[in-house]
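Open question from group meeting: does this chain pack into something compact, or does most of it stay loose? Before anyone orders reagents, we agreed to write out a predicted structure and look at it together. Recording both the input and the output here so the notebook holds the full record.
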Amino acid sequence: MFQTFEPVSDRSFSGKHLPLLRAEMQKQNLDGFIVPHDDEYQNEYIPAYAERLMWVSGFSGSAGAAIILSDQAVIFTDGRYTLQVRQQADSKYFDYVDITEQTPDRWLSENASASARIGYDPMLHTSDSVRKLKTASEKSGFTLVAVAENPVDAAWTDQPPIPRTPAKPHDIRYAGKTSSEKRKEIAAAIKDAGADAALITAPPSIAWLLNIRGGDVARTPLPLARTIVSSDGAATLYIAPEKVDNALPEFLGDGVDIRGEDQLGAALEKLGQQKARIGVDPSLAPSKFVDELTDAGAEIVAMTDPCALPRATKNETEIDGARAAHIRDGAAVTQFLHWLTTEAQSGAVDEITAAQKLESFRAEHHDLRDLSFDSISGAGANGAICHYRVSTETNARLETGTLFLIDSGGQYPDGTTDITRTAPIGTPTDEMRDRFTRVLKGHIALATLKFPAGTTGHQIDAVARRPLWDAGLDYDHGTGHGVGSFLGVHEGPQRIAKAPSSQPLLAGMILSNEPGYYKAGEFGIRIENLIVVREAAPVTGGERDMLAFETVTMAPIDLDLVKPELLTENERQWLNEYHAEVREKVGPHLPTSLKGWFENATRAI
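Structure tokens returned:
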């Protein structure tokens, strides 16, 4: 099993650890310290050693920050974690702030005294975030201090070790392009930006660029490393020597030099001495690296990570791989849904058992390397917590008369999956069926949408929400996030959300389609498939190039929760055609004993 369900933190962390941190702050003559939920690589999911925010506060979510003053502490999260942060971070020690309403830099500008020395770790903050902090310090007068030693690390005596998992080749049959081809493409982007080289700091970009994968981060096959790519396409990979075996240099070839990650500082100093123009993404690069380059004499060329967009626009090999991975994954999910709608209807099954059961079905299918995230296995009221994570402390039974929501995914070498299904335990209420059908209508509206080239995800987000809006309802998360190819289950720059975005959706991008509805204290509903942006057939009489979505997730949508009378004829046709495709593609991968149930679960309505 990949998952464990013991709590990774508890409410006592605040009381136990804040005094230790404040003692270290005092040693460093700091009146405050900023603790982001970030590691030195700006990963979303971070290794255990980097869970500094959790150590300080007890909050184990994947996004947030804290500011610790000598006599006050405040923790920032967004709407996904409103309930969780209050459960985990003790209100005796922490005030709660919605980060969408007040950011840490704004809070400091309004609350830090003019005489205060506020510390930050320059390896955990990008140059963009430090720029905002400096603006806040100029406004209120406090002194911003880049620490040489993170006081959390000094206070955290049993901090886990930094991972040293070997980096492995990612075969061309999955990648679709050689590293040499990719580096040539990135070199052209570096030249176009007027730079001599680019510092690539994001591990997903490095993994994509060099066709390597790793195991330094749970649920995401990343090697933690850095890379400098020159405008002629040559690259130097800076990675811990323990992660390099004899096969890796041969795989990377002559165009890629390998050096220890501890040699990066000297390389940056040399580039400065050469007065080189270095491309850096200020939203990703640690401010320490930018400062080192600048201090050494380099000229910084601000540019978006040149690998981000090519990585997001999958080639045909990657798309074919996604289709294949989703069929195998869909077979595992379908077997689980059979179990859920038969054996799990007793009222005796709990959330952990359900999550383990789904993982066991996935493990039976070919080439599962990991989960793509810890499963969100939410029964009843827990299903209304968008990013709920079951533990032995919260484990609830799937009780008759409730809904069960499970959001899960797998990591396969040919693709990353992410799927959410909602099912009734016993007979659903009319309200449950109404809300489910409205979510389904929004899901179908997005799945069938045609839109002009150049359209952003922000511009189409409302399409999935309208059936809920018509009933005075909504949900507080995005409708779709980007998904990597045997990389992160959350990938930018593509997304579908209320928040403004300047990035158009491009052919080859993979996103989720996941509208939902959540009734606090009672139940949650989400229907999630992954979709690929494709070129649409020309519209007769049309004047614009059009794009559309191809759904690649293959698993039944629970028909007992659907109110057919609320569907239009076109919506009913989509659902029937989708289930026919699921029967065709997933059926051959299922045990014959499931045939009768499977045909009924995918029946036409």
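Observations to bring back to the group:
The first helix runs from residue 13 to 27.
Residues 400 and 519 are 17 Å apart (CA to CA).
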